[in-house]
Write a structure and sequence with these properties.
The chain has 184 residues and is α/β, with parallel strands linked by helices. The protein contains 9 helices and 6 strands, in the order E-H-E-H-H-E-H-H-E-H-E-H-E-H-H. It comes from Vogesella indigofera.
Length: 184
């Protein structure tokens, strides 16, 4: 199954100012997520941000919000966005959800498992998730894959959303996201 930008939404889970410094490779993860969010926005994939207890953990990193102007931001207390019932109807109406964020083994995992239970096709962007420890990240990804989520990379998301080369959109996206120095 391929990601279809007409049927999918990008859900960015809890990449918040106060929690970000605690995760592995925080700076790299932030750069990769900013790339993904900007590319998704530019190709026309709707973006939704969630925030876990923003009063205590702060808000979404400003550079991420700037990458998708006008995107919905929802807050929650449950670890799962689904359990919190905070997701906008537009996201829930689409059958595919592309997920990135943190922490892989807590909020990302619980959200993904519940999206799968609700019949969604879920794609987890493996190079755009993080946890405080490598084992938690790895086991979280493994558990999501075992439950039926599809692991993808940022470039997979971009190329599947584009579907075809040789268009003006492909040329624009290629210049912006594929040529030159990119976050690793």
């Amino acid at each position: 199954m391929l990601i279809d930008k007409e049927r999918a939404t990008l859900l960015v889970v809890d990449i918040q100012e106060k929690l970000l410094p605690a995760v592995l490779d925080a700076e790299g993860m932030l750069a990769r997520c900013r790339w993904l969010i900007a590319a998704a926005h530019d190709v026309g994939l709707p973006v939704v941000f969630s925030e876990q207890y923003p009063q205590g953990l702060g808000h979404t990193a400003p550079s991420l919000l700037a990458a998708a102007p006008g995107a919905a931001v929802v807050s929650k207390l449950h670890f799962s966005c689904v359990a919190s019932q905070c997701l906008p109807p537009e996201l829930l109406q689409r059958p595919q959800v592309v997920v990135c964020g943190m922490e892989t083994h807590v909020c990302v995992l619980q959200t993904v498992l519940e999206l799968l239970t609700h019949g969604k096709q879920v794609f987890v962007v493996a190079d755009a998730v993080s946890s405080r420890s490598q084992i938690d990240r790895d086991v979280g990804l493994q558990r999501m894959r075992d439950a039926g989520a599809v692991l993808v990379t940022r470039e997979m998301v971009l190329f599947e959303a584009l579907q075809v080369s040789g268009t003006e959109l492909f040329r624009q996206m290629s210049k912006r996201y594929l040529v030159g120095e990119q976050p690793s």
